[in-house]
TrEMBL record:
Coiled coil: none annotated. Residues 24-121 form the BRCT domain. Keywords: Magnesium, Metal-binding, Nucleotidyltransferase, Nucleus, Terminal addition, Transferase. Its main location: nucleus. One of its GO terms (cellular component) is nucleus. This is DNA nucleotidylexotransferase.
Length: 501
């Protein structure tokens, strides 16, 4: 019944790489000629990526000439790449797209060259970084301790370290040891923001949030290829069991620990133990475990959006629906789909979510719902605690998504079913609170936490999902857009796809 085992919950090992590139065969996309920059990428990876692209009909040239339309580089900071490109003496370099590997991998996934967007470009630096600032050997200068002052894309160049630190953080989360958990999360987040892989311990000396425990883990990985502390946790029965238990919707560390202490070790034992009383959320969590423990794809999220749009449109033609959470940050997969629903005009959102829920039910596609009425009251704001859920009208749902509704998916039969259960969160803030709600629900959790911390410690302001309050002047600061909030905080605007802290 529970097919998701620990091995699928834990990260997969990298596949071995090919050593010699396939020759060019059929060219499907004549308007695109790719050149892969070997420096930092390495010869074998370059060969592997060349073969991959050619097998998909892309033209990949081994020589950098003005015939090339896309120069693709991996782990090359702009201030290193651009001087090198300029030395290559190519005519019309300015007309060539200089892009990060993310453009390449997304194109491979799409099976066609995707349009180049701002986040793909490796911009020519306008000023060279000053070598005299910062620790002498560290290539990264002025990295902020606040995630909201760092740009963190999904292109994590230090996965080997951040995966290890995330295991340590998670292990502390299971024992509800908040301090050390946050310490490792912050360290991982700093490494995720770096524009290139860490090559030696010297590279990261002087960076914020990297305490002695973190440095020891990184040192271990440099010396032995892995951290013995992390390996120990990964093979620990307690960690493995808590990881499986907390993967069930509605099961947090406290409940998981309670079951573990009872001697229970797998999900079958939980459902067959008559002394265990499951709440409504957990019953749904077990019932739909096979589906909702699997990632939700972007195409599935879009299909859910269509359903909600159609239904909400019956409530009011003016309703707007915004995809938030990880998908707004550019993720291809998430554990759920988060939407913000708003209707212009004061109080116009009243009754919106109950109407949506009723209609999902009458269509026979509502598998679970937990509706929370709005308790929003501006006079009780802003709230000091980050962990507190916001007070907007919201609901946590499980809906039945028909495979035929998902773009690119056949109505295949899987386990005798043509549908998949998907977790969906809907939030309906008043329209005038939209910017704050959007910023709060876009995440990531650590980015949000640091925005609030920055507001409090650096600006004497209180920020939450409802409002921004200036304690110096005792006033609420108004905002129509996320940009307005960043301006109030005196922060450079960080795009959603740069908030993957
Ligand atoms: N959030 C928040 N307060 C909380 C929990 C979450 O403000 N107590 C924000 C941060 C992220 C956003 O809401 C959506 O939450 P999740 O769906 O849990 O996160 P996600 O980034 O969308 O992750 P996933 O892609 O796995 O769904
Ligand atoms: Mg989400």
């Amino acid at each position: 019944m529970f097919q998701t085992t620990l091995s699928t919950l834990l990260r997969k090992r990298r596949q071995p790489e090919l050593t010699c590139a396939q020759p060019q065969k059929e060219m499907k996309f004549r308007e695109v000629t790719v050149y892969l920059v070997e420096r930092r990428m390495g010869n074998s990876r370059r060969n592997f990526l060349t073969s991959l692209a050619r097998s998909k009909g892309f033209c990949v040239d081994n020589i950098l000439s003005s015939k090339v339309t896309h120069i693709v580089a991996e782990d090359n900071p702009a201030h290193e790449l651009w001087p090198w490109l300029q030395e290559q003496d190519i005519t019309d370099l300015g007309k060539i797209n200089v892009v990060d590997i993310a453009w390449f991998t997304q194109s491979m996934r799409a099976g066609r060259p995707i349009p180049v967007e701002a986040q793909h470009r490796i911009q020519k630096p306008s000023v060279q970084p000053k070598p005299e600032a910062g620790p002498p050997d560290s290539p990264w200068l002025n990295v902020s301790q606040y995630a909201c002052q760092r740009r963190t894309t999904l292109n994590n160049r230090n996965k080997i370290f951040t995966d290890a630190l995330d295991v340590l953080a998670e292990n502390y989360e299971f024992i509800e040891s908040i301090g050390p958990c946050l310490g490792f999360r912050r360290a991982a987040s700093v490494l995720k923001s770096l524009p290139a892989p860490v090559r030696s311990i010297k590279d990261i000396e002087g960076l914020p949030c990297l305490g002695p425990d973190t440095m020891a883990v990184i040192q271990d990985i440099f010396e032995c290829g892995s951290s013995s502390k992390v390996e120990e946790i990964l093979t620990d029965e307690r960690y493995q069991t808590l990881k499986i238990f907390t993967s069930v919707f509605g099961v947090g560390p406290k409940t998981a620990e309670k079951w573990y202490r009872k001697g229970l070790r797998n999900l079958e034992q939980i459902v067959s133990d008559s002394s265990i009383h499951l709440n409504k959320m957990q019953i749904a969590g077990f019932k739909y475990y096979e589906d909702i423990s699997k990632p939700v794809s972007k195409a599935e999220a879009e299909a859910v959006r269509h359903i909600i749009e159609e239904i909400a449109g019956c409530f009011s033609p003016d309703v707007t629906i915004t995809l938030t959470g990880g998908f707004r940050r550019g993720k291809e997969f998430g554990h759920d789909v988060d939407f913000l629903l708003t209707v212009p005009g004061p109080g116009k959102e009243d009754g919106l979510l109950p109407a949506v829920i009723d209609r999902l039910r009458s269509q026979g596609i509502l598998l679970y719902s937990d509706f929370q009425e709005s308790t929003f009251d501006l006079s009780s704001l802003p709230c000091r605690r980050f962990e507190t859920m916001d007070h907007f009208q919201k609901c946590f749902l499980i809906v039945k998504l028909k495979k035929e509704q998902v773009a690119g998916q056949q109505a295949e039969q899987r386990c005798g079913r043509d549908w998949k259960a998907v977790r969906v969160d809907l939030v309906a803030p008043p329209a005038e609170r939209y910017a704050f709600a959007l910023l709060g629900w876009s995440g990531s959790t650590l980015f949000e936490r640091d925005l609030r911390r920055f507001a409090r410690l650096e600006r004497n302001m209180l920020l939450d999902n409802h409002a921004l309050f200036d304690k110096t002047t005792n006033t609420f600061l108004q905002a129509k857009t996320e940009e307005d909030i960043f301006i109030h905080l005196g922060l450079d605007y960080i795009e959603p796809w740069q908030r993957n802290a």
